[in-house]
Design a protein that fits this description.
Shape: globular
Radius of gyration: 30 Å
Distance between the termini: 57 Å
Largest sheet: 8 strands, mixed
Oligomer: single chain
């Protein structure tokens, strides 16, 4: 690779030298030709105008008309070149399978693959080429604990919407290597291709049936669970207590939440769900960090309820994921019989992300790993750069949601002054500091990390106990439909085991004198917060390992060829730029001579 780069530098140097020489020769010939054609009867002013007209480059006139600026063109070429060399790429059906399988092989203690059709004898997979389509998802967890907050990321309900499966795949690779400490205290479920058949065939539906209209919510029994995709997918909700879910689609540019069904509409507008406040506030936070980057055609998401921003549907996944377990009667879809172990019980806060109006945007608009890693060097995420693409922003918003599943602390002690930052919540309602069973400090209404909130406590040493609660305002309602308190597992986790209007008190103990650097503290069990101290003095830069798969050498050739082509374009632009500068300099020189001599 080093030898290749040396060759490229040499070619570039030769090209630049040649470009300068060529532009100088062209300038001299033009001036000589004008002088030869000029006669004594031309006035000095006429000759000056003729020199300006002839030496004015044509492309500059076009640039004026079109309003294109040379620095913008060069910047775009540099960005596109960087993305082509280091950027995210689309993965094929086979490639996604290989990536997930290799992740499990390399990290069996973290990644576990599940194949839901193995548990369903009444469904047979359609064929993807010569083999049956594979339906699978990955469970990523760094701890073997049943009480870990659980979040689900879903791609590929519609096979022709290509971003979702690739967002979920890149998210898998990031989670394995990420240094963000809260990731170690979450369970992630990643289902890259719900509609495996559709993704393989690049078709929206599974055998002419839309999987995202195939759920038992606001639907009739003869019109649901006909697809293998929907039937296999719903098994997750019987196996896990899923607190949050995001499903990635394409064809629009929006971030939305329930309601999005016909049974919750008044005056053509969605009614307020019982969990509307928490869905709105977390969604706004996700939308803020999803941001925009017009250089890569990443526009800010439209945000709101599904019916209001997108449209309502019957049998849609999102409302089923949120309301199936508690909202209204259920039909007997496709004559399926459940028992208590196999019956899905979804109560997840669920977001629909329409990741762009283009269902299959060009790969140069996906973004780069380097840009993503740079943004994640701090948490909350830092400012994004010019390589912030479609995959970057959706991974960022996914991590923001995962962060909010449960509160945690960052503690730092310097010169007997304790600094506390609270993550996983927007507003800390109360925070009390106890020492020797005595209340020594009390704080109210403190911002979390999302608004850069901090608490400072001076002159403190030894063992202390921190008790705090977050986001009581999530329980606020105006006119919920139906008239019920918040129903999601997310809100249940806020107050323990029952749906009452109070948040669970979190209790942590720590020896301030033993703190070194910034220390992260999160939950271990369901009742109280035992302490895990994880030093974060020098948080390592994450190194995402690319999965090797067939065709990698072909990509090297393609990238090298693209590099040479872009290099050639840059050389041409540089030559034209130098040509223009030389022409201007030469023109100024000739005009000066004309003025001094008084004649040609």
């Amino acid at each position: 690779m080093e030898q290749f780069m040396q060759v490229v530098k040499t070619i570039r140097k030769i090209g630049l030298m040649a470009g300068v020489e060529i532009s100088q020769q062209i300038t001299k010939r033009k001036i000589k030709k004008i002088k030869k054609q000029s006669s004594d009867e031309l006035s000095r002013e006429q000759l000056q105008e003729k020199l300006k007209e002839k030496l004015q480059p044509k492309f500059q006139k076009k640039k004026k008309k079109q309003g294109i600026k040379k620095p913008q063109i060069i910047e775009m070429i540099i960005i596109i070149f960087t993305i082509l060399v280091h950027g995210f790429e689309y993965h094929s059906y086979d490639s996604i399978i290989s990536i997930f399988q290799e992740a499990q092989q390399k990290h069996p203690e973290i990644v576990k693959l599940h194949y839901p059709l193995n548990e369903l004898s009444d469904y047979k997979a359609p064929r993807c080429g010569k083999q049956e389509c594979q339906y699978f998802y990955a469970e990523v967890a760094f701890k073997n604990e049943s009480t870990l907050p659980t979040i689900l990321y879903v791609g590929g309900f519609h096979g022709d919407e290509r971003l979702g499966p690739n967002i979920v795949t890149e998210l898998l690779l990031l989670l394995i290597e990420s240094p963000l400490p809260f990731i170690k205290d979450r369970r992630f479920l990643l289902y890259p291709m719900v509609n495996s058949y559709g993704y393989f065939e690049n078709q929206r539906e599974e055998l002419n049936v839309d999987p995202n209209r195939d759920f038992d919510y606001d639907n009739t029994p003869d019109k649901c669970l006909k697809t293998v995709a929907a039937r296999a997918f719903e098994t997750l909700y019987a196996k896990y207590t899923i607190q949050g879910a995001i499903t990635f689609h394409g064809g629009d540019n929006s971030l939305t939440y329930p309601w999005g069904s016909a049974n919750h509409i008044i005056d053509n507008k969605a009614t307020e769900a019982p969990d509307d406040t928490v869905m709105r506030e977390i969604g706004q936070l996700m939308d803020q960090y999803a941001s925009s980057n017009h250089l890569l055609k990443v526009d800010r998401y439209q945000f709101g309820r599904m019916t209001d921003v997108v449209y309502y549907v019957n049998g849609g996944y999102e409302d089923w994921s949120y309301g199936f377990d508690w909202d209204g009667p259920k039909g007997q879809c496709n004559k399926i019989q459940y028992d208590e172990l196999t019956k899905p019980k979804p109560r997840a806060i669920t977001y629909l992300v329409e990741a762009g109006t283009d269902k299959f945007p060009a790969s140069e608009y996906l973004g780069t790993q380097e840009s993503l890693i740079k943004q994640l060097n701090t948490w909350p995420p830092g400012e994004h750069d010019s390589e912030f693409g479609n995959i970057n922003r959706n991974i960022i918003l996914s991590l923001v949601f995962a962060d909010m599943l449960h509160p945690y602390l960052y503690l730092r002690s310097i010169n007997d002054t304790l600094t506390i930052r609270i993550g996983g919540c927007i507003l800390v309602d109360e925070l009390d500091i106890y020492q020797n069973d005595q209340l020594i400090q009390k704080f109210k209404q403190v911002d979390g990390i999302w608004k850069n909130g901090k608490i400072f406590i001076e002159n403190i040493k030894g063992l202390i106990q921190i008790r705090y609660s977050c986001d009581k305002h999530f329980f606020k309602q105006n006119n919920p439909d139906p008239q019920l308190p918040p129903q999601s597992y997310f809100m249940q986790s806020k107050n323990g085991s029952s749906l009452v209007k109070q948040t669970k008190l979190i209790i942590s103990e720590v020896n301030v004198s033993s703190l070194c650097g910034e220390t992260y503290i999160d939950r271990v069990d369901q009742e109280y917060e035992n302490i895990i101290l994880q030093s974060l003095i020098e948080r390592p830069q994450p190194q995402i390992q690319n999965i090797n798969y067939k065709g990698q050498y072909l990509w090297i050739i393609v990238i090298a060829s693209t590099f040479i082509i872009l290099l050639f374009l840059l050389i041409v632009l540089f030559i034209r730029f130098r040509k223009q500068q030389n022409i201007k300099n030469r023109l100024q020189f000739e005009l000066t001579n004309i003025q001094e001599s008084g004649s040609v």
